């Protein structure tokens, strides 16, 4: 494999962390290491974890801070190569057939006999199945990028097993084989990130080819940093309280736990409502932002007072060491 | 340095985290990128490259700490990285020299050197192959021999026989040195056991339990069994969770093709092929809970309920004299309590298969349809009552499959009041099922019918 230039933002693990933070993504050591290794080992990263912890956002932020284009491939059941890899431009092919029909007389006019005409036409055989008639889909497009790119294959667990097999060639060799044309190799291998919500177990073949990153719910400190980066208007006191509250809620026995995206939404809501601190009534009215199931909302609503109180206490503890 | 990594990978595999050779190569490449320098980075990197599930990451987490927590000072010291020093390893160094060298080692003047010598000895004695805690003393002794303790002991014997004060003092020093080295060796061996042996022992115990007939399990095996059953159920769930689409290639679905192309004036642009229809698994378990079979029923039901991600449609009936629906207590109550309840409620009274079948026909007949697998667990000993083969034949007719798991060995089938051979012709599958592994296999086959 030819040496691929290392961009400034990927020279060290700390550089990755710093780079990601410039676009508002608060990384952990493990996340930064994964991005760093992905580039240096030329390997895709498979990101697993609960919904809403920033799996897709990692790919988006990486592409943004490196200045790479982001090619996104959303997976779903029934996704096949014509939607993921390439498609022939049937319309254009039809049009060319028409043109050929008109021109064919001129072309074979001076040839006598069928054999001579065929021999003459032989030269045009590959016309319809050439690069000009190929419509690149995200995966092929990623292979064609010359300045580096981030390829995001989102929710791979939603796709069929056949599609997973299709990906193997791209993930290990960074090439795509089009039967009519041959193998198209990536000019500069893209940085590939796959995300999965673990609705099904992925194949071993796929996992083996990837670096496996598991992102879990963040601890209180990182969550505060994330919310502060995304919702800078929020006051320090409210921030500490709402993050503690969310952390406490995650300890409850719920069907669907609130994730970071819900924390951010909640912070935005509370800022919009000009809240300065958490109050039980306010919390109860806005619970539907952090919890998405009626049974969960009912369970937490019953405990709002104690949770709010505990969150306020925890927040005081967190705030005390840093007077700022 | 490679030895450190390959040994670590070996330890991971022993602990149950699958690491393929390709991943091992990746790990080696990772090390050339990140280096051994920073412990935290090393740990994160190896976790990213080697551990591919949350469980494997947990194994890695625990093992990394154990494995790279070697002795004192630099944690990554390896035997081959150390230059060979002194006459410690060279047995030829002569009696006196050997003893001197060992005394010197044990003096505590140079802990690094002691650690290095210990590592050497461990490698020479093959301590990494340790499997059971009871091998500890053996490996420690082999390590001491590799260090050259025989020279020291010979000298010690010699000194003890010489009855002078000088000799006695030297003997004392030699004994202390020997004790210290033994302690060090034992420490190292027990640490290696944690890394390489503990998991192997666990695996061995697990296999032993899985292969033991269920009614011979001791109470203390129950906890282990519960974990194992959950693990087996998860494995089966993963295996069968995804029903692959199967298109019958080449078989045209004329009705659908016509429908799809109505818009094109009936010209078949879009061709629709016939597809195989897949049933969702539906299982009706009928369990004999009389004394002789109760232990098996417990595991079968535990297994079935652990599978309920895959098998959403699950009915459970228990009987000995009469048959009852037990799905409700199993869902509502804690499993142990539910089992207790079922056995108290239904477990007494003479087993009557015929009556159970009559009850099933009377009350739960609509539960059995063409996608149902009827799973019967029992020994077929019906106390000489009418086995009601007519109803059983009708069940076999209605259901997709009838699977009978019998905890009695085939040699005893048909003896005494056993009616199992008369039921056998109507069963799709009849097998002897004694161990947890048999149970897993039977479940696997059953789910296979729905794949």
Keywords:
heterodimer, A: 324 residues, alpha/beta, Rossmann fold, 3 domains, five-stranded parallel sheet, two-stranded antiparallel sheet, 15 helices, 9 strands, 12% strand, B: 451 residues, 4 domains, six-stranded mixed sheet, two-stranded antiparallel ribbon, 9% strand
Short description:
The complex is a heterodimer of chains A (324) and B (451). Helices cover 51% and strands 12% of the residues of chain A. Chain A is of the alpha/beta class and 324 residues long.
Total number of helical segments of chain B? Answer: 18
Number of domains of chain A: 3
What structural category characterises the helix and strand content of chain A?
alpha/beta
Shape type of chain B? elongated
Q: Largest inter-chain interface?
A: A-B, 23 and 25 residues
Distance between the termini of chain A: 51 Å
Tell me the overall shape of chain A.
elongated
Extended strand count of chain A: 9
Major β-sheet profile of chain B: 6 strands, mixed
**Series of secondary-structure elements of chain B, N-terminal to C-terminal:** HHHHHHHHHHEHEEHEEHHHEHEHEH
Taking all Cα atoms into account, the compactness measure Rg of chain A is 27 Å
Strand content of chain A: 5-15%
Our measurement of the CA-to-CA distance between the termini of chain B, rounded to an integer number of angstroms, reads 47 Å
Overall residue-averaged pLDDT value of chain A = 86
Order of helices and strands of chain A: HHEHEHEHHEHEHEEEHEHHHHHH
CATH superfamily of the largest domain in chain A: P-loop containing nucleotide triphosphate hydrolases
- What's the number of domains of chain B? 4
